[in-house]
Amino acid sequence: MDRKESAAGPRGILAAVLTPMDEDLKPDHKAFAAHCHRLLAAGCHGLSVFGTTGEANSLSVDERLAALEGLLDGEVPVKTLLPGTGSCALTDTVRLSRAALEAGAAGVLVLPPFYYKGIDDDGLFRFFAEVVERLGDDRLRLYLYHIPQMTGVDLGLSLISRLIDAYPGAVVGTKDSSGDKGRIMTLCREFPDFSVLAGTETLLLETLRGGGEGCISATVNVTSRLARHVHDAHTSGKDEEAEALQERLTELRASIEAYPVIPALKQLMARLTGNEKWCNIRPPLSELDEETAKNLFSTVPLAELL
User: Fold this and answer.
1) CATH code (residue 222)
2) How far is CA 263 from CA 48, 137, 138, 250, in A?
3) What distance lies between CA 272 and its chain's CA centroid?
4) Which of 203, 233, 260, 273 has the largest count of CB atoms under 10 Å?
5) From CA 203, how far away is CA 180, in angstroms rounded?
6) 0.85 exceeded by pTM
7) Which residues contact 121 (CB under 8 A, 6 or more apart)?
8) Residues with catalytic annotation?
9) d(Cα 100, Cα 119) in Å, to the nearest integer?
C-alpha cells in the first residue's frame, strides 16, 4: 500500500463551501449544515469548509470553532470535512487543526502565513514543521493550500519535497489554486504518492488523468452535479463522455467567474433556495449591485446548477 492509499484522504469532488451569514453577519450554523448536506446529496465527495470561499479569514478563531461544532451538531459526516485551519499566527493554526483532528475530520487544509512577504523556504518550512510537531498527532493529514494570487506566498516544489520527506504520512497533499496546469501536472508526476487537488473544476479531468485526486472548487457550490458526472465518466473509462461534460463544466465555471465569485455564488444560492439571507457577506466583500445581479442571472443557466 502506498502513502496515498494509506492516507485515505479526500478524493474526487470537493466544494470550497460558502459560509451563510445571518442579518448580523454571523455564521448561520443551521443554514451552513443544511448547505453541506445539500452539496453531499448533489454529488460532492467532500467539503472544504473555512477556506477562501468560506470567508474564513474574515472569521475569528472562535467563530470557526463554533461553526465546526454547528456542523457536527447538524450531523454533517465529519469524515467528509477538510477544514481550512491556516492562519498567520502559528498558535491559531495549531488550535484550529487540533479541533479538526479531535472532531475526526479527514484532514486539514493549511494556508502558509501570508502577512510577511519575501519569506524564504526555511521560514515556511519552520512554520509547517512547528504545526506538525506541536500537534504531535498520528491522525494528522495536512494539505498545503497553494493560492499565491491571494497570499503572495509561493509553496515551491522544493519546499513541498522537503516537507514530504520530513513528515511522511502527515504532509500528504495539496490544494493548488494557482490555475497553473503545468505546475499541477508536475506535482502529479514528481510526487506520485502525494494527493493533488486542483483549485478549479476547469482542470478536473486533466488532474484526474495526470494521477491527481480531483478538485476543491468555489463554484462546485453550484456545479457539483456536473462536476461529479465528469469524475464518474472518467473513472468509468468513458473518455469521450468525460471530455464533453468537462467542456460544459468549464463553460459554466467561466460564466460565473466573470463576476466577483463569492458574491456571485451567494446571489445564486439566494435565487436557488429562495432565501435572501444568502446574499449576506462580510466586509470587505460586498454584495452584487442590482444591475450586476440581474446580468448574472441572465447569463448563468440556473437550471444546470446544483
Assistant:
1) 3.20.20.70
2) 18, 37, 38, 20
3) 22
4) 203
5) 9
6) yes
7) 156, 158, 159, 162
8) 52, 115, 145, 175
9) 27
Task: Specify the pLDDT at position 164.
Answer: 98
Contact between residue 34 and residue 74 where contact means Cβ atoms under 8 Å apart: yes
- HSE, CB side, 13 Å, CA atoms: give it for residue 276: 3
Contacts of 209 (CB under 8 A, 6+ apart): 234
Please list, in sequence order, all residues whose beta carbon lies within 8 angstroms of the beta carbon of residue 205, skipping any fewer than 6 positions away.
230, 234, 242, 243, 246
How many whole angstroms separate alpha carbon 139 and alpha carbon 128? 16
Grid coordinates given for 47: 467539503
Task: Read off the C-alpha cell for 147.
Answer: 493560492
Q: Which three cell numbers stand for residue 44?
A: 460532492
Whether a cis peptide bond, with omega within 30° of 0, leads into 284 is yes
83, 108 Cβ separation under 8 angstroms: yes
Q: Is the dihedral of CA 104, 110, 113, 114 positive or negative?
A: negative
Residue matched to cell numbers 446548477: 305
For residue 53, give the DSSP letter: T
DSSP-based three-state secondary structure for 83:
coil
Strand partners, 217: 15
Is the confidence at residue 6, as pLDDT, over 50? Answer: no
Strand partners, 110: 144
Task: Please give the backbone phi and psi of residue 238, each rounded to the nearest 5 degrees, phi first.
Answer: -95, 80
Q: How would you label 124-146 residue by residue, b for 16+ Cβ within 10 Å and e otherwise?
A: beebbeebbeebeeeebbbbbbb
Over range 19-47, report the average pLDDT: 98
Over its C-alpha atoms, the chain yields an Rg (Å, rounded) of 18
pLDDT at position 185 is: 98
* Host domain of residue 165: 3-304
Residue corresponding to grid cell 478536473: 204
In total, how many domains does the chain have?
1
CA–CA distance, 198 with 177 (Å, rounded to integer): 6
